[in-house]
Amino acid sequence: MFIEPTFYQKNQGWIEVICGSMFSGKSEELIRRLKRAHIANQKVEIFKPLIDNRYDDEDIVSHDQSRIHSTPVGAAQRILLLAQDVEVIGIDEAQFFDENLPEVCESLAQNGLRVIVAGLDKDFLGRPFGTIPQLLAIADTVTKLHAICMKCGGLATHSFRKVSSKEQVVLGEKESYEPRCRKCFMEGQKLNAQVANRMEDNEMDI
Ligand code: ZN
């Protein structure tokens, strides 16, 4: 669990990143921190990318059904306009925002805001996702969460895609992905490649 640093001074400006694989509890952790800020009478705003409308248009909903109101935005720059008179900003599914997000977070922090960003650190091929690498670099604190590997029960760091698609973004989590450790992820990737090759061979035969 993340314990808020005692050296953090209100209004000093601050960036926190919560990252990890799917099902690692990123949204739950984001909501927990935001609720605490809200209880402390701080003005809290939450933003998420427009692309993420899996469950609800207005709420960030985590897998354990705890929810918090949020504003969907199409471009990262919009957050600057919408974040007037706010002390704490939450940003969920940060990997889906455009390339301006790190700059936006930096300028919010420079204006004295506490910025809490949650996002997937790796895509379905295990590659760094979107601007998360930059956000990790400019963050004041980083929390990397782990899920449980669905194959071996170890700590999962990867999001394994069970359906075949080359697109980086396939929504509809539970049916399409499962968390896996590095070893089980690699084994799954190998099997997927074999299946894809076989399908290509069959197509050529026809
Ligand atoms: Zn495993």
Description:
The protein has a domain at 14-146: Rossmann fold (3-Layer(aba) Sandwich), CATH 3.40.50.300. A hairpin with a 6-residue loop joins β9 and β10. The chain is elongated. The protein is of the alpha/beta class and 206 residues long. The longest helix has 24 residues, at 182-205. The model has no long low-confidence stretch (mean pLDDT 87). The strands form four sheets. A six-stranded parallel beta sheet has the order 5-2-6-7-1-8, sandwiched between helices. The protein has a two-stranded antiparallel sheet with strand order 3-4. Strands 9-10 form a two-stranded antiparallel ribbon. The chain has helices spanning 26-39, 77-82, 101-110, 132-138, 173-176, 182-205; strands at 14-20, 44-49, 59-61, 67-69, 71-73, 88-91, 114-120, 141-145, 147-148, 155-156, 158-161, 177-180. The protein is built from six helices and twelve strands. α3 runs parallel beside α4. It binds zinc ion (ZN). Residues 149, 151-152, 154, 180-181, 183-184 line the site of zinc ion.
Indicate the CATH topology of the domain at 14-146: Rossmann fold
What's the helix count?
A: 6
Highest CATH level, the class of the domain at 14-146: Alpha Beta
Q: Which cofactors or ions or other ligands sit in this model?
A: zinc ion
Structural Rg = 18 Å
Question: How far is the N terminus from the C terminus?
Answer: 55 Å
Query: How do the SSEs run, as a string of H and E?
Result: EHEEEEHEHEHEEEEHEH
**Tally of strands:** 12
